[in-house]
Design brief:
Chain B: Keywords: Metal-binding, Nucleus, Zinc, Zinc-finger. The structure holds two protein chains of two kinds. Chain A is mainly beta. Chain A is built from three helices and 30 strands. A four-stranded antiparallel sheet of chain A has the order 1-30-29-28, with no helix packed on it. In chain A, strands 2-3-4-5 form a four-stranded antiparallel sheet, with no helix packed on it. Chain A has a four-stranded antiparallel sheet with strand order 6-7-8-9, with no helix packed on it. Helices cover 4% and strands 49% of the residues of chain A. Chain A has a single domain, classed as YVTN repeat-like/Quinoprotein amine dehydrogenase (Methylamine Dehydrogenase, Chain H, 7 Propeller). By secondary structure, chain B is an all-alpha fold. Helix content of chain B is 29%, strand content 1%. The chains are: A mainly beta, B mainly alpha. At the A-B interface, β5, β9, β23, β30 and α3 of A face α3, α5 and α6 of B.
Chain lengths: 339, 290
């Protein structure tokens, strides 16, 4: 089977998260097989370095340099990795699986969200890394962060979406109840599956389990709020039945501010939210798209394709795991000049 | 609105799935496939398809056929019957088309595009490159005939800079002959031992093609394990909606499956983060002696 993408050695089980280093030279892959895999993006591709965990890993991010990373997963612990020495340090733990992990480079803090309904703030460089812990109304599914505006977006079960300021999170003391800047409800009627902040930080895109993507803006001004909209995506007519697939992955292009979406139907689309147009639809992948990440230099799109355990993939393709790099995104994601 | 659609005449040339070469004519493609990929290595006979070659080998020479010749890595199998453009996996065909269209698009926009895309070069290939490619090919073939040597035995040291397990023949940087995603899944992961020192309890993951992930519950007290897979209720698709459940995400349900379930180590061993940390520090000290 041939695809136009460069393929890297995939993990043994589903891909849960992808992260590029700031220099775009390294790619971290978190997998349900209980490992994180560090790929050097050289030509020709080399075998990744594999770091194992006692349970499935759900989230991974690079830290202050491309030699440090943080991971979390079903074993509830937040781990710091040093790739120079291969050392692992457990920063602390949550009471349930760590579902999302985000590094805020401008504040040098780490944010972790968990199904135990707490958001924790860590300062990895200090001896007691846990800075503060915040109780939220429901299980956290994903956290997004925009260095451009220092905003942190937390999406939860029951369609909660809260907006925090990274500075406020960094300075909050333990025990202090921090009010978010905004407490919003998702514009979509169904469970939020994925979320991504715009490159300019002015708004975000969120995808639901019911084949729909919403574009919303942070600015509480009614004029800005009136611009929010939602549209249907990742649907397919199979044998006369309109099949509706979860939107598993969203990622904004760091320069062009257009975004890619990937669904359990195995399709990846590139959208221009300001023109309200689809710019590109890539051909179907044999299994669901689990995760997408643009490299910070905007030249590559990393694609993790694997079955998401959501009924959307044929029995026979459920074991397929693919890890691909698409390097034509600089062309594909460039907004068309307005006519 | 006033946007003019660029009228582009785009014709997809016949191409060979085995080596991704394009041809002017379907006839030439057939000739190419016969002589390059479906040629018997024991006699001058050329066959029309991979299946034909296999039957020929088995019946005439009474032996299992050698892998197909001159193919991109991973495309030397006999399982796909290809004759010219017929029988190419639809997925591969679609992807190829998309790629060619993109290339045609970029060619038209060559002035604006920043020239990142590397296209096929039909210039004379420098001799040095040819020699290097030949050496790589020889290594690949040697590795194939002698599988034991493909993956070096475990290096006792830290696994930095392990040579790539599948040397690829890329003369043009950026142009990747890809192994098909189905092929090398998880062969290497178990080959590289994790470096000593950072290993959390679970050390071994037996991996084969589509291996189940490691079992995360090496607990002796089975009595505490009351939940079974049958307790995980996943709502079936309803009215075409693949995930009608609005109370839990697919990942949450997945995490409840027996094979992903994680049990904290019993209290006292490594329950607290502190002792976990201490343990890793201890290992670090041990590793220092190595």
């Amino acid at each position: 089977m041939s695809t136009g993408d460069q393929s890297l050695q995939p993990p043994a089980d589903g891909i849960s998260a992808l992260a590029f280093s700031a220099d775009s030279q390294r790619l971290l892959v978190a997998s349900w097989d209980g490992s994180i895999q560090l790929h050097e993006l050289t030509i020709p591709p080399t075998a990744p370095r594999i770091f194992t965990h006692p349970a499935a890993v759900l989230s991974v991010t690079f830290g202050s340099s491309s030699n440090t990373a943080f991971s979390g997963g079903l074993d509830k612990r937040v781990r710091e990795w040093n790739f120079e020495t291969g050392q692992c340090r457990v920063l602390g733990k949550h009471d349930d699986a760590v579902s999302s992990i985000v590094w805020c480079p401008e504040k040098q803090i780490l944010l972790t969200g968990s199904w135990d309904q707490t958001l924790k703030v860590w300062t990895p460089s200090s001896d007691s890394p846990l800075t503060s812990s915040h109780n939220l109304p429901n299980r956290i599914y994903s956290i997004a962060h925009s260095p451009a505006t220092s905003k942190v977006l937390v999406s939860m079960a029951h369609r909660h979406v809260w907006v925090f300021d990274a500075g406020a999170l960094a300075s909050a003391a333990q025990g202090q109840t921090l009010q978010p800047e905004q407490q919003r409800e998702s514009a979509l009627k169904f469970l939020t599956r994925s979320i991504a902040l715009m490159a300019d930080g002015k708004g975000w895109a969120s995808g639901s389990i019911e084949g729909r993507i919403a574009v919303e803006y942070v600015d509480p001004d009614p004029a800005a709020q009136a611009q929010k909209y939602a549209f249907r995506a990742h649907r397919q007519n199979v044998d006369g039945v309109d099949c509706v697939y979860p939107v598993n992955a969203l990622a904004y292009h760091p320069q062009y501010n257009t975004f890619a979406s990937g669904g359990s139907d195995g399709f990846i689309s590139i959208w221009d939210h300001s023109a309200k147009k689809r710019m590109k639809l890539y051909s179907k992948y044999p299994t669901a798209i689990s995760s997408l990440a643009f490299s910070p230099d905007g030249s590559k799109l990393a694609i993790g394709a694997s079955y998401e355990h959501d009924n959307a993939v044929n029995e026979s393709d459920r074991g397929t795991v693919m890890l691909l790099i698409k390097d034509t995104v600089n062309v594909d994601c460039k907004p068309k000049p307005k006519a | 609105m006033g946007k003019k659609k660029r009228t582009q005449v785009f014709v997809l040339k016949p191409w060979c799935w085995y080596c991704e070469r394009e041809f002017e004519d379907e006839k030439v493609l057939l000739q190419h496939q016969k002589s390059k990929h479906f040629k018997c290595q024991m006699c001058p006979r050329k066959l029309n398809t991979a299946g034909g070659l296999m039957v020929h080998s088995q019946q005439v020479h009474k032996c299992e056929p050698e892998p197909l010749t001159n193919t991109l890595p991973g495309r030397d199998g006999y399982d796909i019957e290809i004759f010219g453009m017929e029988g190419i996996p639809t997925n591969a065909l679609a992807e190829w088309r998309a790629r060619k269209e993109a290339e045609a698009g970029t060619a038209a926009l060559a002035a604006t595009a920043n020239g990142k895309r590397i296209r096929h070069s039909y210039n004379v290939i420098p001799e040095a490159d040819l020699i290097a490619a030949l050496a790589q090919h020889k290594a690949l073939m040697a590795a194939r005939n002698n599988p034991g040597s493909v993956f070096p035995p475990f290096p006792g040291s830290f696994p930095i800079g392990i040579p790539p397990p599948n040397p690829t023949l890329n003369r043009f940087p950026g142009e990747m002959p890809m192994p098909p995603p189905t092929l090398p899944t998880g062969m290497p992961p178990s080959m590289y031992p994790p470096p000593p020192g950072f290993q959390p309890p679970m050390a071994q993951n037996g991996i084969s093609g589509v291996a189940p992930p490691p079992t995360f519950v090496p607990q002796s007290n089975e009595a505490t394990k009351v939940l079974t897979t049958s307790d995980v209720v996943v709502e079936p698709p309803k009215d075409g909606v693949m995930w009608p459940d609005v109370t839990a995400s697919p990942a949450e349900k997945r995490a409840q499956q027996a094979r992903y379930r994680y049990q904290s180590p019993p209290p006292g061993s490594a329950e607290s983060a502190e002792s976990f940390e201490a343990a890793s520090r201890k290992r670090k000290a041990a590793a220092d002696f190595l």
